[in-house]
């Protein structure tokens, strides 16, 4: 009889995912884990491990942050935060209609450790789906599963030392960021002044002064050092204490240990009259670390200024229509939804709205990609960030600030830009591992050698704690990504997430949409059938296209600038890959890409009434002048495919001109077929501009929306091009390579520095004073390597 048959009623086996990595683990029924994590006592009585291996068990010891273990931390919501439990009030602050996405202004962020701690909030609360911190902008993005418990989350952040202020969808952060920067600068300025005075008072001691005068200078050191350790160093204590509360390790922990060990040791020696006093070196240590952190913070803020709405909409004044019919002056920051504004030639439109003037010429290149001004008619939607070319125009404001189409894109950029990727997670774990190793080695060395020479053992252990620098790992990676994002912005590339750089390393295949990507996408009406189009049909077409930002819509407007789309449809919608559709009474009018009556080289569009074609229109396009060169460069490294919904004859001609072989282009592709083609090629990049590319975007590892892209595409794309053509692709590849090389260089330097410096500290070649100088200097070296690597 088989062994399993001898004990059928004693043990019942089942599978459960590993607590850390999710790999299936076979557990016996009587030893199966409960739904909630076990208490320490329960864990000791189990004989079957909930981990698939020892490595997962060790890693989970750092990240084992379950809500049951931290139930005591769940606070009562104070009266001042009760408003965050009111669903009606939450509508004011929610970033979506489901009341589940919120943005907070977060004060108290000091370093990467704060980010790591706060982003573990989902482990505490089951209802919290995601917490993402943008360190450079001091912003916190929370995504809930259900609209509840927000007040409790804000209160726990307050108890951790962070002040979280909810932001409305239309609220800007720039003034608050400046206020936070002033607070950090004040703390830094005080530390600099006190450190400078301590160093000056150290000169007589090093010059050889003795007796009462020396004691007087040392006590002055002590007095000046007190504000440093009790005020300037507060961010280190907050970070260290918060990490200990959640059973984690942060870079602030060894910094705090080094500061207080040096302070206590120096104070005891000062009282006893000994010479070993380190107030000067410890003060320098505090000041240099604060300088490094402030420098990193400011660089990240500057690097991420692409997410600031003021970058695209400068401060301006406009004329506002008052209730009595008069016009008054109003600044852009005072505009509200519903206001009627008059703007003048050359001004940037400050908000989304609906045009009231009969006709206006607007530079919409930020959204449509068209280099020539576009003709807008009354009732057409206009967007913030576009520029008025005609003399003057009036419109009614519908959305302002971050609720505008441009603001939503920039908010999405801010939310996605610093999400954790594999490289960031690797450096996080390495830095935490380094902290644990340094503390263990320092304590072990001291315990083994203090009986032989207490003072020397203490000095070497303290030097090791000070000189070891996980900051180099913690700062280097996010800084490299931030500078990569900044350089990409200067090259006309808006990258939503730094993870795009990492994904670019694995790209093998690039898919290029044809129309508006490889070609200019600025179509011109060159032929119609019948030759004469009635005024009624022109008005119908312009009304169908009134809300569309597609190049075909603007081509119709350019063709008939004297006509107006004044017909109101009962139902008007845009169908991806087809066109526009609207209904008047019992008639269904459709403007769609034509499958027939098309000449080679032309894009055909048909006007239908109840599926009966009434007219055909043909538009000419031309290949971007740089397309052939860019494709030739990319073909040296990637497989290049051309995708298009156009007929095979048109796509074949374009592929031939660009040097793409016959087996590397696909014609007459629907949105779903594009998606399937891209999905069949792992590690692919998709470049497109139309709504019919959205499904392919979602299947690609990296998606790029070119300058002529519609807003829907820009919302789905990982990268948005602000320059014409596909030339920005070469910059994307180059910047991704630079960023990756810089990340590797930073990590190599950090490992080498910590290994050599740690050995020298334990060998007695580096004393605590030199260690206090080397630790922040190593962070500055990381800054130098990063800024040199991404220039």
The backbone outline, from C-alpha atoms, is elongated
List the strand order in the largest sheet.
Answer: 16-28-27-26-17-24-25
Rg, rounded, reads 32 Å
Distance linking N and C termini: 73 Å
* Helix-residue proportion: 40-55%
Which runs of at least 5 residues are low in confidence (pLDDT < 50)? 1-15, 26-48, 53-73, 368-372, 595-599
Strand content: 15-25%
- On the 0 to 100 scale, the average pLDDT is 75
Structural class: alpha+beta
Please tally the β strands and state the result.
Answer: 28
Number of helices, where a helix is a run of at least 4 consecutive DSSP H or I residues: 26
Strand count, sense and barrel status of the largest sheet are: 7 strands, mixed
Topology:
Elements: H1 3-6, E1 13-17, E2 24-28, H2 40-45, H3 54-63, H4 87-93, E3 101-107, H5 112-118, E4 128-134, E5 139-144, H6 150-159, E6 163-167, H7 174-207, H8 211-232, H9 234-245, H10 252-272, H11 279-303, E7 317-321, E8 327-331, E9 340-344, E10 352-355, E11 359-363, E12 374-377, E13 381-382, E14 387-388, E15 392-399, H12 405-416, H13 422-449, H14 454-467, H15 471-490, E16 493-495, H16 499-504, E17 509-513, H17 514-518, E18 524-529, H18 535-544, H19 551-559, E19 571-575, E20 579-584, E21 587-593, E22 602-609, E23 612-620, H20 627-635, E24 639-643, H21 648-658, E25 665-666, H22 671-679, E26 684-688, H23 694-699, E27 702-705, H24 711-716, E28 719-721, H25 728-762, H26 768-789
Helix pairs in contact: 7-8, 7-11, 8-10, 8-11, 9-10, 10-11, 10-14, 11-15, 11-26, 13-14, 13-15, 13-25, 14-25, 14-26, 15-25, 15-26, 25-26
């Amino acid at each position: 009889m088989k062994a399993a048959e001898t004990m059928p009623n004693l043990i019942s086996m089942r599978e459960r995912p590993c607590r850390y990595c999710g790999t299936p683990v076979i557990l016996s029924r009587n030893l199966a884990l409960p739904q909630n994590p076990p208490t320490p006592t329960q864990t000791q009585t189990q004989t079957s491990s909930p981990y698939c291996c020892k490595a997962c068990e060790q890693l989970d010891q750092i990240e084992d942050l379950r809500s049951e273990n931290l139930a005591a931390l769940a606070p009562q919501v104070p009266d001042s935060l009760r408003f965050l439990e009111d669903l009606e009030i939450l509508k004011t602050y929610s970033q979506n209609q489901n009341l589940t996405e919120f943005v907070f202004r977060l004060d108290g962020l000091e370093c990467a450790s704060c980010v790591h701690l706060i982003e573990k909030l989902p482990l505490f609360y089951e209802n919290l789906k995601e917490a993402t911190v943008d360190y450079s902008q001091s912003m916190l993005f929370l995504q809930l599963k259900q609209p509840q418990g927000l007040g409790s989350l804000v209160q726990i952040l307050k108890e951790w030392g962070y002040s979280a202020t909810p932001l409305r969808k239309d609220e800007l952060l720039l003034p608050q960021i400046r206020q936070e920067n002033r607070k950090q600068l004040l703390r830094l300025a005080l530390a600099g002044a006190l450190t400078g005075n301590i160093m000056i008072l150290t000169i007589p001691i090093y010059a050889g002064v003795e007796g009462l005068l020396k004691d007087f200078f040392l006590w002055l050191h002590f007095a000046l050092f007190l504000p440093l350790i009790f005020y300037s160093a507060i961010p280190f204590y907050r970070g260290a204490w918060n990490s200990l509360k959640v059973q984690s390790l942060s870079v602030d922990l060894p910094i705090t240990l080094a500061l207080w060990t040096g302070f206590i040791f120096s104070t005891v020696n000062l009282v006893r009259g000994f010479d070993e006093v380190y107030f000067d070196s410890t003060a320098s240590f505090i000041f240099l670390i604060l300088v490094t952190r402030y420098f990193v913070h400011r660089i990240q803020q500057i690097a991420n200024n692409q997410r600031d709405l003021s970058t695209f909409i400068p401060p301006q004044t406009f004329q506002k229509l008052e209730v009595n019919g008069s016009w008054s002056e109003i600044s852009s920051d005072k505009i509200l939804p519903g206001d009627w504004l008059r703007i003048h030639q050359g001004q940037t439109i400050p908000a989304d709205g609906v045009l009231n003037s009969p006709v206006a010429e607007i530079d919409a290149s930020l959204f449509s990609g068209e280099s020539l001004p576009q003709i807008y008619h009354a009732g057409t939607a206009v967007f913030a960030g576009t520029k008025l070319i005609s003399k003057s125009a009036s419109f009614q404001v519908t959305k302002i600030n971050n609720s505008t189409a441009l603001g939503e894109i920039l908010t999405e950029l801010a939310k996605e830009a610093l999400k954790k990727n594999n490289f960031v997670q690797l450096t996080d774990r390495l830095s935490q591992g380094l902290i644990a190793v340094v503390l263990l080695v320092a304590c072990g060395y001291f315990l083994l050698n203090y009986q032989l020479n207490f003072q020397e053992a203490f000095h070497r252990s303290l030097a090791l704690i000070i000189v070891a620098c996980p900051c180099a790992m913690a700062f280097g990676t996010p800084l490299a990504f931030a500078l990569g994002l900044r350089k990409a912005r200067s090259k006309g590339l808006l990258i939503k997430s730094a993870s795009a750089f990492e994904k670019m390393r694995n790209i093998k295949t690039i898919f290029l949409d044809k129309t508006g990507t490889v070609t200019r996408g600025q179509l011109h009406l060159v032929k119609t059938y019948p030759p004469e189009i009635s005024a009624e049909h022109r008005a119908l077409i312009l009304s169908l296209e009134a809300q569309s930002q597609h190049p075909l819509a603007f081509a119709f407007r350019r063709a008939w600038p004297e006509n107006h789309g004044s017909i109101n449809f009962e139902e008007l919608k845009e169908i991806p890959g087809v066109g526009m559709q609207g209904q008047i009474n019992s008639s269904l009018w459709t403007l769609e890409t034509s499958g027939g009556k098309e000449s080679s080289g032309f894009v055909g569009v048909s006007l239908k009434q109840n599926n009966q074609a009434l007219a055909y229109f043909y538009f000419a396009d031309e290949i971007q002048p740089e397309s052939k060169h860019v494709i030739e460069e990319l073909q040296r490294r990637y497989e290049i495919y051309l995708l298009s919904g156009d007929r095979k004859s048109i796509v074949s001609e374009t592929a031939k001109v660009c040097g793409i072989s016959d087996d590397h282009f696909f014609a007459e592709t629907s949105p779903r077929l594009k998606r399937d083609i891209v999905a069949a090629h792992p590690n692919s990049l998709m470049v497109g501009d139309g709504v019919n590319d959205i499904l392919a975007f979602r299947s690609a590892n990296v998606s790029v929306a070119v300058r002529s892209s519609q807003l829907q595409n820009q919302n789905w794309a990982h990268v948005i091009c602000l320059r014409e053509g596909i030339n920005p692709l070469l910059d994307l590849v180059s910047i991704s390579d630079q960023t990756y090389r810089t990340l590797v260089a930073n990590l190599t330097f950090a490992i080498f520095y910590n290994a050599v410096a740690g050995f020298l500290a334990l060998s007695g070649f580096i004393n605590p004073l030199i260690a206090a100088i080397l630790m922040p200097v190593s962070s500055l070296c990381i800054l130098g390597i990063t800024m040199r690597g991404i220039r």
